[in-house]
Amino acid sequence: MAWLPTIVSMTMIISEAIFLELTISGGVLLEMLFEEFGGRVELAKAYYKALTDSMKKHFNGNGVIASMQHCNDFMYLGCVGDDFWSKTTGVADGTYWLQGCHAVHCAYSSLWMGNIIHPCAEFHAASRAISGGPIYISDSVGKHNFKLLKSLVLPDGSVLRCQHYALPTRDCLFEDPVHDGKTMLKIWNLNKYTGALGLFNCQGGGWCPKSRRNISAPECSKPLTCLSGPKDIEWNNGKSPISIKGMNIFAVYMHQQKKLKLLKLSEKVEISLQPFDFKLLTVSPVRVLPKKFIQFAPIGLVNMLNTGGAIQSLEFEDEENSSNLVRIGVKGCGEMSVFASERPSACKIDGEEVKFDFVDKMVTVQVPWPNPSTSTVVDFLL
């Protein structure tokens, strides 16, 4: 308890100009306090009311990371997960299997965090990109992978954040993706107009009830194969569901391969992963445009890990010359892609006609970073 007053005093003198996000530590000690002064339940209620009021006023509602909060009561009050451990001395291959263990904990309940300079850096980055949470980096000073960071964070420091927090797919809910040697962790999330799927081979170690610690399970670490498709996403979930009524076809963009497949709602694609490897899929409902019966689906910025998160608005308009106009508001910069069954007659960025590529039914256009940093309007005339 000796360090708690130090933390309090440090947070009190931080300049308001840099007081953007805050880590609060040591809440677990509330379990031990006030036994004779109203009880821990009443203390916890007062603590969380004050914390919630402060978050709403100063931190946009959720800009707080709570560390060391895991007494029993708090498990029911917030998202929880074990810490990120880059490596652990005395633990066999902990640099690798601990990352899968951490990803599983967070997929079922919490916030991803980790190092960008790490053997599993891309594994962590992919999970954080579609987690729905902030991007939390714990790199050592001067040790960064800027190429990877640029696929997570935009030039102004903002991120392409999903509308929801990531959750395991239904077929993972009662399985063991770290110990059974057969289950791949699959997580889903929603952006404004697309779904996101992440597949992770986390097998290789985790919590052992007998030894009461995380231990390696190398016999479980092996290549895995699973099936995944549009139906893995809970399209009607949350406050901002995506209506797929009448949608029969989905464009599925595979981030690593930079390939696109068309799948029906019930169809699945086979995914094979080596230990601690991953795949990211952007899933977009395909619409049939009323004129010329052209199929169309937005994909997003393919240079970003959360590709579909770049799409901020989507409008369909009829042109007088029997053409279809699709107008997309894009947050960010880089390679913007959409699926179209026919080549567009023109593409425009903020009203100016630009060059574009059309390969394998994917339209690609280079979107510059806007100044000031607002959404860029990209028009596709089909």
From TrEMBL:
<keyword id="KW-0119">Carbohydrate metabolism</keyword>
<dbReference type="Pfam" id="PF05691">
    <property type="entry name" value="Raffinose_syn"/>
</dbReference>
<dbReference type="InterPro" id="IPR008811">
    <property type="entry name" value="Glycosyl_hydrolases_36"/>
</dbReference>
<comment type="similarity">
    <text>Belongs to the glycosyl hydrolases 36 family.</text>
</comment>
<dbReference type="InterPro" id="IPR017853">
    <property type="entry name" value="GH"/>
</dbReference>
<protein>
    <recommendedName>
        <fullName>Galactinol--sucrose galactosyltransferase</fullName>
    </recommendedName>
</protein>
